[in-house]
Fold:
Amino acid sequence: MRATIIHGPGDIRVEDRDYPTVQLPTDVVVKVVASCVCGSDLWPYRGVKPTRRPSAIGHEFIGVVENTGADVTALKAGDFVIAPFVVSCGECPQCLNGVTVACARLAGWGGRDDSGVKIDGGQGEAVRVPLAESTLVKVPLAGDPDDDLRKNLLTLSDVMATGHHAALSAQVSPGRTVVVVGDGAVGLCGVLAARRLGAERIIAMSRHADRQALAREFGATDIVEERGDDGVAKVRDLLGGVLADSVLECVGTKESMEQALHSVRPGGALGFVGVPTGGAEIPLRYLFDRNITVSGGMAPARTYIPELLEDVLAARINPGRVFDVEMPLEDAAEAYKAMDERRAIKVLLRP
Structure:
């Protein structure tokens, strides 16, 4: 099969790999229908995260079950499934508490499972899925989803779940005012999540016209282009002299965290989901003096998918709009380049 392999900074290749097979009784093999490039995939692409050896890459995919292991009874060939961005067992204390990203048997796509067997990356034609019954979410469909529905379902594997996690962590609820720092796919999904949870006013911080338009479509009531102290002053002005009840930090840099922290009112809450890239330290005295709550981290997508899936299937949310570019899998290198150069919000890859 064909699969995306990262060899080093800026070096993405689509290469031949063995087609996956069932290795363990709890495995299934999924034929990938669609995958995508994530903002966090750009960290190794940019060299921020080292690539020590050529590795399969990609952690967001949807597809159809082809084969199942002997112990798999809840899934069968032909089932359409969503793959969360990590593997989880569903049985350990962390999973039972909903924190599937801290599973005792945690594994990532492109890595190895807890038995040491290699796992395929998500940006390929097929994937062996370990612990399949606890990891995958079956989609109740009578037939194949259309293109728009496929896009919506694919966001649930990561970005929509992550935007939702940011909103929950920031205590978004009906009547709250919200600022979203970051206008990538996660930030835009954070806007949608805040609207879904009933926020009264949603301010999206963005300097790009196409992303501003999508933010407004997703529920943003205001756009702020200013940054630093000017951005904080603009938020304060829009909110009648006070700062936001809830702020979603969806980037992971020192600058984005500082922007987010200084946009929260005393007694407010900040939810952070941007993968930290160094320097994004939390000033404890600032939090102490202002009674600001900070929460967040890696989103437990497997926990959130069933709830979000219900809204997608009922057409109450349409997060697939974040995919503004589609490319064939063979063009994965160009997909990474487009994302890195911000010519695309999020690229969908078709095998």
Remarks:
- Residues 9 and 45 are 5 Å apart (CA to CA).
- Residues 159-296 form a domain with the Rossmann fold fold (CATH 3.40.50.720).
- The chain has two domains: 2-158+300-350, 159-296.
- The radius of gyration is 20 Å.
